[in-house]
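Might you be able to check the backbone structure tokens below? Thank you kindly.
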Amino acid sequence: MAKENKMRKMICSAAALWMAVIMMLSLTACDTPGEKSIDVYALADEMAAAAELPEMLTINKGDSNEEKGFAAISDLDYAKVAAFRLMYASNGSAYELAVIKLTDASDMKKLEESLKEHIEKRVKQYRQYNAEEVPRAEGAAVVTNGAYAALIMCDDTASAKAVFERAFILSAGE
């Protein structure tokens, strides 16, 4: 009888452990690790502050011009974008910052390629009409993490990149 109770307790404990594991997996199945609480709007603002960007115009997902704004930097199907903030210089100089969250991280390669093509186009544009802006455009970068990407075109790309990368390190610890 004592062996039966001990066996029953072990089975119940194992079943409870499996239930807990299944529940945890179901809670995390929708998010890639490190992506649980990234606010693209706040992240873009923090990156802009770190890079000391000049006065910028902003387009967010949900704005009336959101699709046109996104199409200015990427040819990815807009339906694949969960959230984004695009900031660009009001005076036409080569300052751009975008933080994008995709609905599915499997589309990241396409987005990354598209953002890099955008940078190449901007470099060519500045070579034609504003050579002073070329170094800034040439120093632009695209960084990614899971379903998130950032386009950074400014004088202090390194500071903006550091803020982006730190956001995922901090969220992984939550």
User: Anything to note?
Assistant: The beta strands are 56-60, 81-89, 96-102, 141-145, 148-153. The chain has two domains: 1-30, 31-172. Residues 21 and 72 are 44 Å apart (CA to CA).
